[in-house]
Specification:
This is RNase H type-1 domain-containing protein. With about 70 residues, this protein is mainly α. The protein is built from 4 helices and no strands. It has helices at about 5-15, 30-45, 50, 55-65. It is extended, with a radius of gyration of 15 Å.
Amino acid sequence: MDLLPLIQQILVLLHCFEEWSICYVSDQKNSVAQAIAESVVTWARSQSYVGSGSPLWLDQLIQQEAGD
């Protein structure tokens, strides 16, 4: 898969913002976002967790990460 056109499109859109930045975060420090992304791909979720309420596994993961 050639990602160059997508990356170029993202860069064009980012220039519409007054300020932006990109930060790398390791998987261990970003487990909630990683789990959400994986669940979207695996379960083909089309509705937002924010809009529909989070599943129990996500609530537990958020609490666990907050305690670390």
